[in-house]
Amino acid sequence: MDERLLQAFGGLSLQPRRSRFAGRLVLLRGLPGSGKSTLARQLKRDSPGAVVLSTDDFFIENGVYVFEPDFLEDAHKWNQKRARKAMKNGKSPVIIDNTNIHAWEMKPYVMMACENRYEVVFQEPDTPWKFNVQELTRRNTHHVPRQKIQQMKEQYEHNVTFHSVLQSEKPRREERRSRGPNAAYSMGAHSCPPPVLSNRRPHGGHTSNMPFNRRGGFSGGF
């Protein structure tokens, strides 16, 4: 574990005792079409104060999802920034609705949870088709093709833990590229051609004065 990480946790890698938690971070995991967003909505209903945040939200304009692969890394940073702000403002639970195929993809969220004394919970949809590639292809709403879902299934890291996430390392860009299109980031791994749009600015995302979207959270003003 690197020095910066140890300093952030005061030299400790254990989560604090439950009585000392200031809030809860729920990291949803699962392949496209497995039921993550349905689970997120259920968790939101059970906890009306919950904040649901997804990297997908970055690509929603006027209620329409338009994926732009050139901005994917910006989208992840934007979502991480929103999560950090929600924790700083004491919102709980903070629910991250991403595929989170690899442990390292969750590491920024787990680190900020530690910094803010949030309990970390990993949760997957309990659907019978969650690893059935054919059914996932049929069900996913962003038209992720079967081949991509199969690749994501093969890369999916099972049985992740608080400690395994903290000890994970993000692969170098060259390594991610050599592993295929889903290795860099699991979210948004579409084969659809990028549309000609956008005056989207790098690092732009949605501004804080814009309402949130179909996920049921907020884009800003936590």
Please give the share of residues in helix: 25-40%
The number of helical elements comes to 8
Number of strands: 6
Rg result: 17 Å
Order of helices and strands: HEHEEEHEHEHHHH
Strand order of the largest sheet: 2-5-1-6
Provide mean pLDDT, rounded.
Answer: 79
Tell me about the biggest sheet?
4 strands, parallel
Strand content: 5-15%
The N- to C-terminal Cα distance equals 31 Å
Task: List segments where confidence is low: pLDDT < 50 over at least 5 consecutive residues.
Answer: 5-14, 180-220
The secondary-structure class comes to: alpha/beta
Inertia-based shape: globular
Polypeptide structure, described:
With 222 residues, this protein is α/β, with parallel strands linked by helices. Helix content is 34%, strand content 10%. It has helices at residues 3-8, 36-46, 72-88, 103-115, 133-139, 146-155, 162-167, 173-178; strands spanning 23-28, 51-53, 60-61, 64-65, 94-97, 118-123. The model is unreliable at 5-14 and 180-220 (pLDDT under 50).
